[in-house]
Specification:
GO terms for molecular function: hydrolase activity; ribonuclease T2 activity; RNA binding. It holds the Pfam family Ribonuclease_T2. Its EC number is 4.6.1.19. It comes from Thermothielavioides terrestris (strain ATCC 38088 / NRRL 8126) (Thielavia terrestris). The protein is globular and about 60 Å long. With 406 residues, the protein is of the alpha+beta class. It is 19% helix and 24% strand. Strand 11 and strand 12 form a beta hairpin. It has two domains: 242 residues, Alpha-Beta Complex (Ribonuclease Rh, Chain A); 135 residues, Trefoil (Trefoil (Acidic Fibroblast Growth Factor, subunit A)).
Length: 406
């Protein structure tokens, strides 16, 4: 362990003496930099991260219509997919439930549904994932915090892992392509890969057990900035590749599972979104939403903040409640406490009492669409209480909007 942190000190002497989790917008992308950089803002060694998901059927874990969280892993060597593990035994905390109860109760509540241990010992599983993988992420080193409070880096790890999982609705993506759990139908690897790649943008590592049963997915990322607050950029897989056969893949139902449809649209790691795990997304025919909900923002492959009542985006604070009303054209309109919402003449999302002709949006099952596209944009990623306008024309930062019914 001492040798590893000595290595970090060679890369940057500033991490210990001038620490902060607020990183420059020009921070390099992990696994791509060629010069020394502060490892509080650059994940090193390694920097290739995986958000990993389970599909457990024997015994079944989690809702019957959602994959569950395995973890967030740091890969050291993109060439062979190797990783470091259990890097700091002094921070291998054994009271994750209590830590999250005190600091992030909504994250804990979500994990109790979607981060499940196949043997029924969730606390032990969470301790394992943090101790084995979380303690190896350099940006989560306690020295990277101003006024560090013990265990706060573990809270950041679980918050970020949950928000990453929420942005990756594997069940919905597969279902949209006609790939649903079945005791009789089998699928090809190419069909599963196509369904996931079309949504994620890059190939996904798809794993099966010895019975050719689909049971795990790995989504691959590089990160600009720190794990706790940086931008996750999807990237190509590394390592040995998928373990499923090319044909005859079984995607078995979860016997006796419950149905909960908000696995991908809960609270973010930064913006404060009330949790309602029993509230489904309400849809009407023709791609319309109906009822009340939050507009969460996806950027860099991760959920980061939400839209507030004026139609602007921010990453820290309480999300606004919007009312979706089906329109006669098969879409829906949005209203906030500020008034009706529309795309203005400057191509910005605006909600105001001065809006007399609200814009009609549609819903594609995953994202809110405008004029047939789920692409929205901003000039920059806001921080703190700063707000950013959201546009429908190309700009520096690409966004997507998801709906969380309440």
């Amino acid at each position: 362990m001492a040798a590893r942190y000595l290595l970090l000190g060679v890369v940057t002497a500033g991490c210990v003496t001038a620490t902060s989790v607020t990183c420059s917008a020009s921070a390099p992308l992990s696994c791509h930099n060629t010069t020394s950089y502060d490892t509080c803002c650059l994940n090193y060694p390694g920097g290739h991260l995986l958000q990993t998901q389970f599909w457990d059927t024997n015994p079944a874990t989690g809702p019957s219509d959602s994959w569950t969280i395995h973890g967030l892993w740091l890969i050291l060597s993109p060439g062979d997919g190797t990783y470091d593990s259990s890097c700091d035994p002094s921070r291998a905390y054994t009271n994750i439930t209590q830590i999250l109860q005190a600091a992030a109760p909504s994250t804990l509540q979500y994990m109790q549904t979607y981060w499940k241990d196949i043997n029924g010992n969730d606390e032990s599983f969470w301790e394992h994932e943090w101790g084995k993988h979380g303690t190896c992420i350099s940006t989560l080193n306690p020295s990277c915090y101003i006024n560090y409070q013990p265990t706060q880096e573990a809270v950041d790890f679980f918050d970020r892992t949950v928000s990453m999982f929420q942005s990756l609705p594997s069940y919905s993506w597969l279902s949209a392509a006609g790939i649903v759990p079945s005791t009789t139908t089998t699928y090809t690897l190419s069909a599963i890969q196509s369904a996931l790649t079309s949504k994620f943008g890059y190939a996904v590592t798809i794993n099966c057990n010895s019975n050719n049963e689909l049971n795990e997915l790995w989504y691959h990322y590089n990160v600009q900035g720190s794990v706790q607050s940086g931008t996750f950029e999807p990237t190509s897989p590394v390592g040995s590749g998928s373990t499923c056969p090319s044909t005859g893949i079984k995607y078995l139902p979860k016997p006796g599972g419950t149905t909960v449809t908000t696995a991908t649209t809960m609270t973010t790691a930064t913006a404060s979104t009330p949790v309602s795990s029993a509230s489904p997304t309400t849809t009407a025919p023709g791609g319309a939403l109906s009822g009340k909900g939050y507009l969460n923002v996806i950027t860099g492959g991760a959920q980061k903040g939400c839209i507030i009542s004026s139609g602007t985006w921010y990453t820290t604070g309480t999300c606004a409640t919007f009312t979706a009303t089906p329109s006669g054209s098969g879409g829906f309109t949005l209203t906030s406490s500020k008034g009706k919402c529309a795309i203005s003449s400057s191509n910005a999302l605006t909600c105001s009492s001065s809006v007399t002709s609200p814009t009609v949006f549609t819903y594609d099952g995953t994202y809110v669409d405008y004029a047939g596209s789920s692409a929205f944009y901003a000039a920059s990623v806001p921080s703190g209480t700063t707000q950013a306008a959201v546009y429908t024309t190309p700009n520096t930062v690409s966004l997507k909007l998801t709906w969380q019914a309440i």
